[in-house]
Design goal:
The structure is a homodimer.
Chain A: E1 8-14, E2 16-23, E3 26-30, E4 32-34, H1 47-52, E5 58-60, H2 62-67, H3 71-76, H4 80-84, E6 90-92, H5 96-101, E7 104-109, E8 112-116, E9 123-126, H6 128-138, E10 142-144, H7 156-176, E11 183-188, H8 194-207, E12 212-214, H9 223-233, E13 243-245, H10 251-259, E14 264-266, H11 269-275, E15 278-280, E16 305-307, H12 327-331, H13 334-342, H14 347-372, H15 376-386
Parallel strand pairs in A: 4-14, 5-6, 10-11, 11-12, 12-13, 13-14
Antiparallel strand pairs in A: 1-2, 2-3, 7-8, 8-9, 15-16
Helix pairs in contact in A: 6-7, 7-8, 8-9, 9-10, 10-15, 11-14, 13-14, 14-15
């Protein structure tokens, strides 16, 4: 870590905290949400659009890029930033999550995971040293250790075995890591078992990392369960290191996690639901209007989403969200969006992806502002008065 | 036509001519290529991007918009320009071409066409008055008469029957047409039979229209055959009216048609082949570099296209066309484009669509410049020394 001194600085702390994450490609204000560029592209959007939507940092999936086009190929082409033409910070995951969820017949042992590629069936091996080497070749600003993910629900002994491996692998990753311009974050496992989370946290903190993530949350557990795990775990993490909750991106889970002291988030939710025709709409009056329009109407109740295919929008000349200043809401109507989705036109997914990223970043910016002014508690209360929960999101 | 006086002005004429087409939404320099916004969207692109790629005018398909979302719905939402947020000129076709090519079990009679919608199988009727009414509701700047399209090859008696109907329908359309802010163009039919083309032209010119199109070309006939039909037909058209060759968009056919005196073109080719992973690349040295780069390399010979999936581009760090200044070539490599297409990422089709429109408009702008400087013959010769023909394009 020689090249990046004190990569994180906490500027304000209480329920929710403000921080600055310094990387080789720039500084990120936290709390921050990272859109997902799964295969080296935030689906359908140009880097400039992702930035204009408010993103300061992206996540890219090591598993996908490792299998195609290959990490050495990306390195040869000047690294991931140049490859995808994104000059801001990038975080890569370890590949473990996709190996467990996407690959065929993955088999974990104490030293790593053997699996077959979902692309061509070829036999592959992911171990801690490989996860580090691949991420070093990609050249991300933040790399993640290889961890063993567990589902929800998960039996205690399975969660315990995963903690043991995760700690061991974290140590191997740390030993293998060479790049001075890349931060290596550890990942806390332990399912929903508070004592296992604590044990894992203590072991990882003893090893010492510049940042810590929480894995295997937002994998189907109720919000209250996630909240309970966070409240038991986050206080054990060092105050001066960034905390990253992997796979969270719905406004409700995100806000609750900030409340518990989380700094970083990533999720495919905003772009995935966009491609499906669902627009994120912030509860009326929660966040200042960008257009001067009085307020968001939420014709489907207080759910925070607008399904553009609905017949009720067939002649609706309003933008998706009248208070939103994004390119989708600036120029296009709900009726047009509905038409695009019914017609299978790819401009539909593109426009809603842009809107959803803009909206989620607008939400996170409002959270940051409320922390800065000491009003996060009021913001949170206002949110829960107006919003209804999303289903748990997934990566 | 009361509102649009002298909608076309020829500025220079010889082999190839320069003109200005005045519409209710602005003036178009000709020769001009119109990208196709089939269902009210140039697939994957924002209006501002289509304009930045060089387009002054679009084509939209009446058949598609009539069936979904419906012409009355579009009218109710403020017309097609507002619906799709394109404030430049729009030309709509009559719907006939799609009825013959897309609809199930279309049956033509002397008064119109009965068919089943390809969307829901519902029974529909398109006749000349309906074609006009639908286009008036859409509010395009240029509407087309309903014509009977014929395939290639086509027996003489079938082509002759189509001419008879086309002339009759053109007269009915003219009688039904009301909008003063919309031009109504006639369409010359007659297959590849020069005498039928001449007969059709004479009859339509006698009726009098502000513009004339040639239909049922670029439907599979060899370039020489199209050239022969143009040479026999175009001289019979009035010099002071725009001439529109429907469905042409490959550089070779387009250049030959300009040489024969055509002013307007439309085609899905640049965007359709883009979605398939094929980039249009102009022959080396034909058109001035936009980047300062020495010249285009055409690694697949002189074919004018680059298939980005080819394995030879896996590590190619050059832009698709080093001389091109479009957003795709400015920021991204062939290796990245190849990766996007192999990964099924929608950014790939989007970027190549942008590049192909930019390239075709760059080509048409170079044609205009060569006409202006009296060098079209030299330009054409240089083109044929370097280029090889595209397969016939289609709408």
């Amino acid at each position: 870590m020689a090249d990046i001194e004190a990569p994180f600085r906490v500027r304000q702390e209480g329920r929710g905290r403000l921080g600055l994450l310094r990387t080789a490609h720039g500084i990120v204000e936290t709390p921050a949400f990272l859109p997902v560029g799964t295969q080296g592209s935030v689906k359908g959007l140009l880097p400039a659009e992702v930035r204009a939507a408010g993103a300061a940092m992206l996540l890219a999936n090591t598993y996908h890029l490792w299998l195609r086009p290959g990490a050495e190929r990306v390195a040869e082409l000047g690294g991931l930033h140049r490859f995808m033409a994104w000059d801001g910070p990038i975080l890569t995951d370890s590949g473990g999550f996709q190996v467990f969820s996407l690959a065929d017949r993955s088999r974990v042992d104490d030293d790593g995971v053997t699996f077959r590629s979902h692309l061509d069936g070829s036999l592959r091996r992911l171990d801690p040293a490989t996860a580090v080497a691949v991420q070093e070749a990609l050249g991300s600003d933040v790399a993640m250790v290889l961890d063993q993910c567990v589902p929800y629900p998960c039996a205690r002994d399975e969660a315990e075995a995963a903690v043991r491996r995760t700690v061991r692998w974290a140590e191997i990753c740390r030993g293998a890591h060479r790049r001075g311009d890349q931060l290596l974050f550890a990942i806390v496992q332990g399912g929903v078992h508070a004592d296992l989370r604590a044990r894992c946290t203590d072991a990882l903190v003893a090893l010492g990392f510049p940042g810590y993530a929480l894995g295997s949350l937002s994998v189907g557990e109720p919000l209250a369960e996630m909240r309970r795990v966070l409240e038991a775990t986050v206080p054990l993490l060092p105050q001066d290191r960034p905390r990253y909750l992997m796979g969270v991106g719905s406004p409700d889970y995100l806000l609750e996690a900030v409340w518990s002291g989380i700094d970083l988030f990533d999720c495919v939710l905003p772009t995935r639901v966009a491609r499906n025709g669902t627009a994120l709409v912030l509860p009326a009056g929660l966040v200042a209007s960008e257009t001067g329009a009085a307020g968001t109407d939420l014709p489907e109740g207080r759910t925070g989403r607008l399904v553009v295919r609905n017949a009720s929008y067939a002649a609706d000349a309003r933008p998706v969200d009248p208070t939103c200043g994004c390119p989708c809401c600036r120029d296009f109507t709900r009726a047009y969006l509905r038409h695009l989705f019914r017609s299978g036109e790819m401009l539909g997914p593109r426009l809603l992806s842009c809107h959803n990223l803009h909206t989620l970043h607008r939400f996170v910016a409002a959270i940051r502002a409320s922390i800065a002014s000491g009003e996060l508690a009021a913001f949170r209360e206002a949110f829960w008065q107006r919003a209804e929960p999303w289903a748990p999101s997934n990566r």
